[in-house]
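#struct-help
A.M.: can someone run this one for me? Single chain, 239 residues.
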Amino acid sequence: MTQLEDAIAALTVGDYVSATGVDTRGAKVIRTGTLLAPPKPVTSQYNGQRRKGVRLFVGLAGTSVDQRSTWVTLFDDLGSVEEAEEPTEWQNSALRLIPGIRAATDNIRIHFGGKGGKRSSEPSEPVVLAGVRLTDDYRHEIYDVDTQEVLLDATLQTQIWWLPAKAAAHDPGPAPEPEPTVEPASEPSPARSQPRRRGLLFEGWLSHEEEPGLGRVVLDLARRHIIGWLTLDHRFIPA
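D.P.: on it. Structure tokens below:
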């Protein structure tokens, strides 16, 4: 076994790790967080070639592994994973810096210590186990997991006090055995094979919320997940 294979074999779901590899676009990425599911053998595109690798799912505990923001693919010559120290200190930061928050699922759990910002020196009491969910008007609700009471209506730029929390709204049962997956090569399809795309809103909703440095938030048709951003010069940046 290679050194990378040894490191992957030693992993257990729930470990807190730092993994270096590539994202779905082939760009180098480092993801740090909880290992959310067993490693999965894949055949992926990298540097113009189809190569065999291993995909890890790393993010905030409770994040769905369907969210590509948790994916990191490791190859023998480009990839590493090691145990990392889980944060134990409170973070005073923008909501958007919580791992997995852009996926806008209702699986994220944090310890919530109130609004943050430069004038806030410490989290408020009492500290609450909270969830985060996207609202119909494209904002985010931070709510008490036990009582379902909404604690704060926020945007991605809202400063809050938070700490990662192990969370499981339900027990999904044992994870299925991973099977090798082959991703389709990113080759252009013939023009006659499918209808011509009619622009961005053909497959997404353009919200009124803007994120500095990126542009207006674009949601999927169900208005639950962020799929990217539309820049001022009308370029689409995928999430």
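A.M.: thanks! Residues 91-164 form one domain.
D.P.: also worth noting: The first strand starts at residue 16 and ends at 22.
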